[in-house]
Structures are given as structure tokens and as C-alpha cells.
Design brief:
heterodimer; A: Alpha-Beta Plaits; disordered N terminus; B: 435 residues; alpha/beta; eight-stranded mixed β-sheet
Chain lengths: 103, 435
């Protein structure tokens, strides 16, 4: 178990916002995974814009990728993809993930 | 790890879970509460307003040591277009009472305090532990939980699911369906810090008085949603939320929407010079009465956000959470005293008690509102705010045009924007959904 408090910086303008937050990253154990796909579904594509932490992005090859380190655990992607089953979403292990100081 | 048996296990340590665990522990029950965060509050996000009444019924002396920010003396309700706001403000010295009615709070700190009280009452609180599934017996009765920490199950007579809007445990166990994107709002929020004197000067406050602003209009770009700004002691919580289904269809990112709201000419001066210390996002169940899942079964009860207990019209949620947590706990204690089984039939007493309370009465009253707003979002969140703003400006601007012509111009803009029949229809629909 590697515990470290770090700030995180996904791409885009949300970067500065996430920089203020505290996370305990569970290294090597992402709590969200995208199922392998050739062409992303409408819901997955929507997540590149909809994720409030900017975790989802479109790769050069045209697939949607996720980098969940800056995830604020809202669950929006889980709900948007619930019907299509494009992602696998779990809560981070107990004690890991975002750690709000104010909430 | 834990081989003893509990009277009740509470999943989650937000307002509903803390209320339930506290009340049951006070009743002398053996309670285990499990929370995935480092401490109660570390995962929890809210605006946040605390409604004193709901907490007072659980803990009359909470004001003695609870971390409260400011008591609310003024409510501003704004409808906004891109450059203006038209407001209804209510401020009263009556709110400067010995036991104020509403407070602003910071949930991470408040929940931590509440959790200390839960532990002092005698409940065991296990943090940094995620409940992974419910344990059922051969008759499909819930008899305990499994966590990511222990190999074995932990058993109890009843499991109270206070797991919040993303209630994975209940959903994956088939106790309730997945939340629909139309029934849930995504809200993003920032914490802006300013010296307390600056906040007091900007909002005309003294001592611990506070102001809350709730805003709607073109700020949500045609989506169903609202913005808010709450004054805390030395910070301002500013945020905006819209229905997830609307966000999914739209073009804008949640953080761009928040930045635009912060830069609105009516908001920007209130935040000027502040230091941002946190960014949060959270889902709010807003489907109301019609989106409510089954609330009890054999060995389980749902409370708080997991049960869609939010009155979106009045921006009330934490009070419904605490009340459902309290009522669930009282029901369990009552059944235990009577030596009744904690099955679906007996636990239905919880639903009956809620039906007699403001919780169900209010949710039932507004059951038509979510669908109405969803189907008319561009009218209610875009067109009307623009027409209201235009009317106010026409009326107030002194430019040599006579008043009768101004009144005609205002009526014309409404008729052209929405037509007479359209407006009458909207009024009737709203009145029908409201009563």
C-alpha cells in the first residue's frame, strides 16, 4: 500500500482547480476502467466534456482514455454509462482517493 | 476482524448515516458504522446549509460545540441573464434569534464533529473501509455486509444504507435501480477565501450573520439547474449544478459553466481578491417523489440521498437526510423493544412514519416539478429570465420614452417571446405541479 498525498494535473483548464485538492492515490489500482473499444460510444465521448475533473480524454487513435488520479468521485460517468456498460466503476479502496478539507 | 454481531450496521457517515447511528447508539443499540473516507466528511460535499430543526430533534444541544459558520439572515433569489440579475431578497432581524434556523457550514468539518458525537454516544465507527456487498441468507434476507478490509462478513439484524447518491451497495445487490441521468444533477463548487471583514462589508453583515444567494437563468445555458453563493465565516462557497442528462446533451464543461458564473458581472465583485482553496463536484438526486426507490426490505432500510430524499425546489437535502436517518433509527429501536423481526413488513413502519412527516408530504407536493422543468428547461431557465431582465431594464431606464409605451413594449416582448397562450399554459402547468 503506497500512500502519498499529491496534487494532480490532468489536461485542460480544470488543471488549476484540481491543483488545490488533496488526494491519496492508490498507485496502480485505478478505480475506474474503460472497457476496450474501437469507436467510442456517444456516452463515452460525452464524458470527455462532462467529467468535472477532466479525467476523460480522446487519444490520437480515436479512443476515449481515462486518467482517474484527479477524480473527485462524483459518479457522473457511472450514471451516464450505466445503460451501455462502457466503464467499470468502483469506489477507491477505503482511505484512498480525494480527501476534502472543506467539502 | 469483527466477529461480534451488531444490532445495526450503518453504511456511510454523512448526515443521514450519522443521524441514524447517533440515535440508535443513544437508544442503547449496538451499532457499527462503516465509512470509506479517512474520516466522516472527507468524501462529503454540499453547498452547504444546515437546517437547525432537523438536527435539533436529534441533538438539542448541538450549538454548544458544532462547527457552524454563519447563521442565515438574508436569502437572495435571483433570475439572471448574461449581464444582469433581478432579485427577490428577504432579510429579517428575526433570524438573529437565540437559536437560529439555518446556518452555513463546511461539511468536512461539520461531519467530523457529528461523527465524534456518534462515537461518544457509543457507536463503533470504522473509517477507511468500503462496504463492497450485502450478505444475504437463503431467504434473500440481508444479514450483514462485506468490506474491502476483512475477508469475513460482519453480521447485524438490520443494515441501514446511508451510502449517498452513488449507492453502489444497494444497487449492486438489486435493492434499487440505477439512478437515471434525468433524475440527478451534477454540481461543481469552489471555496473562495476572504478576510471576514471583507465578507461582512460586501454583504452588509455583522458578527456571524450570513447571506445565501440562489440563482437561475441563462447562467445554466438552457439546462435545468441553479447557481449558488453562500457566505461562510472566512470563505464563500460558490457553485452551479445542472441535470446530468442536460449536461450530456450540451456543449459546455461543468468547470467552464462555473467559471462563467463566477465571472458574471453580478457575482464577480463579490468574489474579487479571493483565494481558491478547493474544487469539488457532487451529484444531487433531484428526481423527487417519482424517482424514489423501494425504501425497506428484509433486513435493510434506505435513508438520505440513496433514497432520493432531496427537495430540489427548496434546495433542502441535509435536513431530509437527517430526518430519514433519525426516523429509521427510531423505527429500528422501537421494533427491537417490541421484539419484532426487522423484516420488510415490520420495517414498513419507517415508510409510514415518513409519510406523516414533512419529508414525504413535501416530496409528494412537488412530484410534478422535475418533469415539468425537464420538458420546459429552455423556457424556464432561458427565455423567462431574459424577458424578466429586459422588462426590468425597460421599466427602469429613463430615456424620454413615455410609460404607456414602455408598458406596451414589455407586454409585446413577452407576447413575441412566448405568446399569450404559451404563457397561460406555462402558468397553469406550474400551478398544477406546485399544489
Amino acid at each position: 500500500m503506497t500512500t502519498m498525498t499529491q496534487t494532480n494535473a490532468p489536461q485542460g483548464r480544470v488543471e488549476e482547480k484540481l491543483y488545490q485538492n488533496r488526494y491519496v492515490v492508490d498507485s496502480g489500482r485505478p478505480h475506474i476502467r474503460i472497457r476496450p473499444h474501437q469507436t467510442p460510444s456517444k456516452a463515452l465521448l460525452a464524458m470527455t466534456r462532462l467529467c468535472p475533473a477532466g479525467c476523460y480524454s480522446l487519444s490520437d487513435a480515436g479512443q476515449v482514455e481515462i486518467s482517474p488520479d484527479g477524480c473527485v468521485e462524483c459518479g457522473t460517468c457511472r450514471i451516464v454509462t450505466a445503460k451501455g456498460g462502457e466503464i467499470e466503476w468502483n469506489y477507491p479502496r477505503g482511505g484512498f482517493g480525494v480527501l476534502y478539507k472543506f467539502g | 476482524m469483527i466477529d461480534e454481531r451488531f444490532d445495526a450496521i450503518v453504511v456511510g457517515a454523512g448526515p443521514s448515516g450519522n443521524a441514524a447511528a447517533y440515535v440508535m447508539a443513544k437508544e442503547g443499540l449496538k451499532v457499527l458504522q462503516i465509512e470509506r473516507g479517512e474520516y466522516s466528511g472527507s468524501k462529503n460535499v454540499q453547498g452547504a446549509i444546515l437546517y437547525a430543526d432537523a438536527l435539533e430533534r436529534i441533538m438539542p444541544d448541538f450549538r454548544d460545540d458544532a462547527p457552524l459558520e454563519r447563521h442565515v439572515v438574508e436569502q437572495r433569489i435571483w433570475t439572471m441573464d448574461d449581464r444582469s440579475h433581478t432579485g427577490v431578497h428577504y432579510r429579517s432581524d428575526d433570524f438573529n434569534e437565540e437559536k437560529p434556523n439555518r446556518y452555513t457550514i463546511l461539511r468536512a468539518q461539520f461531519d467530523k464533529w457529528f461523527s465524534r458525537r456518534v462515537q461518544q454516544a457509543g457507536a463503533i465507527v470504522l473509517c477507511e473501509t468500503t462496504v463492497t456487498e450485502l450478505v444475504k441468507d437463503g431467504q434473500d434476507r440481508v444479514i450483514g455486509v462485506r468490506t474491502d478490509r476483512t475477508g469475513g462478513a460482519i453480521f447485524a439484524d438490520v443494515v441501514i444504507l446511508a451510502e449517498g447518491v452513488n449507492g453502489l451497495v444497494g444497487q449492486r445487490s438489486g435493492l434499487r435501480p440505477e439512478v437515471a441521468p434525468e433524475s440527478v444533477a451534477l454540481a461543481v463548487k469552489e471555496m473562495h477565501f476572504l478576510p471576514r471583514e471583507t465578507i461582512e462589508a460586501r454583504f452588509n453583515l455583522s458578527g456571524n450573520e450570513g447571506v445565501v444567494i440562489e440563482a437561475m437563468g441563462t447562467i445554466t445555458k438552457g439546462m435545468a439547474g441553479t447557481g449558488f453563493l453562500y457566505t461562510n465565516e472566512e470563505s464563500i462557497s460558490v457553485g452551479i449544478g445542472c441535470i446530468v442528462a442536460d449536461f450530456a446533451e450540451g456543449e459546455v464543461t461543468p468547470y467552464a459553466l462555473l467559471d462563467a458564473f463566477k465571472n458574471h458581472p453580478s457575482i464577480r465583485p463579490l468574489l474579487a481578491g479571493s483565494e481558491i482553496k478547493e474544487y469539488a463536484a457532487h451529484l444531487i438526486p433531484e428526481g423527487g417523489y417519482k424517482a424514489m426507490p423501494q425504501l425497506v426490505g428484509d433486513g435493510w432500510i434506505v435513508v438520505g440521498d440513496a433514497g432520493q430524499f432531496v427537495n430540489a425546489v427548496h434546495r433542502e437535502g441535509s435536513n431530509l437526510a437527517m430526518t430519514t436517518g433519525r426516523v429509521a433509527a427510531e423505527t429500528v429501536a422501537w421494533l427491537k423493544r417490541r421484539r419484532e423481526p426487522l423484516d420488510a413488513v415490520c420495517l414498513a413502519e419507517y415508510t409510514r412514519r415518513l409519510a406523516d412527516s414533512f419529508v414525504m408530504k413535501d416530496l409528494k407536493k412537488y412530484r410534478g416539478i422535475p418533469a415539468l422543468l425537464h420538458h420546459n428547461k429552455r423556457t424556464f431557465f432561458g427565455l423567462y429570465p431574459q424577458l424578466i431582465s429586459k422588462a426590468a431594464q425597460t421599466w427602469l431606464r429613463v430615456d424620454g420614452v413615455d410609460k404607456v409605451s414602455k408598458e406596451k413594449a414589455i407586454l409585446r416582448s413577452f407576447r413575441e417571446g412566448r405568446s399569450l397562450f404559451g404563457m397561460i399554459g406555462d402558468a397553469l402547468k406550474l400551478a398544477r405541479a406546485w399544489r
